Amino acid sequence: MLALHGTGVSDGVAIGKAFVLQRELPEIPEYVIPREYIEEEVARFQRAVEASRRQLMTIREHIPANAPPEATSFLDAHLLMLDDKMISQAPIEAIRNQQYNAEWALKAQSEILSTIFEQMDDHYLRNKKTDVNQVVNRIQRNLLQQNYDEHEKIAEGEIVVADDLTPADTVMLKHNRVRAFVTSLGGPISHTAILARSLGIPAIVAAHSASRYVSSGEELIVDGKRGMLIIAPDRSIVDEYRRRQKDIGRKKRELNRLRTSRAITRDRHRVALLANIELPADVRAAAQAGADGIGLYRTEFLFMNRPEPPNEEEQFRAYTKVIKSLPGKPVTIRTLDLGADKQVDGGRAGTAITVNPALGLRAVRLCLHDTSLFRPQLRAILRASAFGKVRMMIPMLSGQEELFQVLDLIEETKSDLKRERIKFNPKIPLGGMIEVPAAAVSADLFASHLDFFSIGTNDLIQYTLAIDRVDDAVNYLYDPLHPSVLRLISITIQAGKQARIPVAMCGEMAGDPRYTQLLLGLGLSEFSMHPATLLEIKKIVRGAHLGQLTRFAKDIMKLRDTREIHTRVEKQSRH
What we know:
Layout: E1 2-5, E2 7-10, E3 13-21, H1 38-61, H2 69-83, H3 85-88, H4 90-98, H5 102-118, H6 123-126, H7 128-143, E4 159-162, H8 167-175, E5 180-183, H9 191-199, E6 203-205, H10 210-213, E7 219-223, E8 228-231, H11 235-256, E9 272-277, H12 283-288, E10 294-298, H13 312-325, E11 331-334, H14 364-369, H15 371-384, E12 390-394, H16 400-419, E13 430-434, H17 437-441, H18 443-447, E14 452-455, H19 457-465, H20 483-499, E15 503-505, H21 516-522, E16 526-529, H22 534-542, H23 546-558, H24 562-573
């Protein structure tokens, strides 16, 4: 028996036989094409791109009717990448100018793209490197005339182990009734992880070298919550996990009964539970989970995988689609939160790659630097506000001057819309994301100019502790319970209370059951999270006594030993 650890990205337990999906490309040939055969080589490359397009379209047409909307969205993203000049045209230039063979030209271009993506600070964008590699590999396989349909060999009930999976793979695995999957690569916010949660497949990513240790046919146990892969378990371990499977099934049935229940503590305090979404199609999952609204709509996904940014009308249609899908419920639209390195997505070619993009031109800084991006979005959000309870949220505020510039632009945009007699909500609530330590420390200075706060713990923790949580070398330092992080959260909540404005949290910490009771005790009354975790958080809220948790949180804030904080919070979360 051998146990491997990775990152659990989709809860649940699966027991079954392994199917090791081998996807390694052979060595890419590199040779010079004689001048007289250049156009023939260009045509060969173009045929490979078109073959890739046909394959993806075929898979798209066969997506099961009960598949989540994310499945189609990710496949559409890959189809868009095939149209991107950086993939479909740049290799042709290398064939014509450098006389590279098609495989070599594509490999050289993919290496350039990988370097660009690796330098990006925004983790959502950095994750797009995986999608680019998968599209490139599909084209390479067609150039090399390799069969791409290994998933047809997978039997029902098997557990797939692979280095990585494409969105197409993940959808087809669900269609083939695969029980779980494990990948050596990936992270908690990769498309693989998002699809796994949406499809309800237990899954582990970043289980390094898993495909080397597992042989097809071996019995496996996948623990999606703990991120544990057990190879060739003994009978007692199998029996234990079968009992856990039954417990998980029972708990899911219990949670489903809470869909229409309100999130109210035992001492009658109302808590708002909202959902984070990336795409308009994600609203369905939020509604099915019984979300009170949308606490974070990440608009940057509209700007990705395309040579030019979306215009005002396209953004307006996307926003109103979400708003109309949730009548009477709040929809918090975050303005564009991209890094400085956005020439691959959004049409900003020529922008220099910064040495430290984490401290560079991103989010609100980028929007203020390039108002040609910002103004159409402000108009689209304001126009959409006429159709429902829209809130606008500004990411990565660090100083008052930034906020004042944003407020001026919003007022200018309102004046333009009034002059054009276009309807909008003149009193649209404006909020700020607290994700930079400077913003948390001076939250009281921001509060008088804003209608609400939302704490973005993903970046707040990274900036506070000076670590990158997706970097394997240092992500062990990522600690939501670090005293400095808790103090910044507490400062923000207190500033909101003093200014009588609501304070929400939309980072991953908000959807982690381990921290719910502490956050309630600190005074947080609005949580926004992935829809998949909402019912579990609701159950905790309904069993909580806010008075007791307030005293618990005060005791935690007095502790000086981080280890004791972890012990106390873990013990409380089991109650």
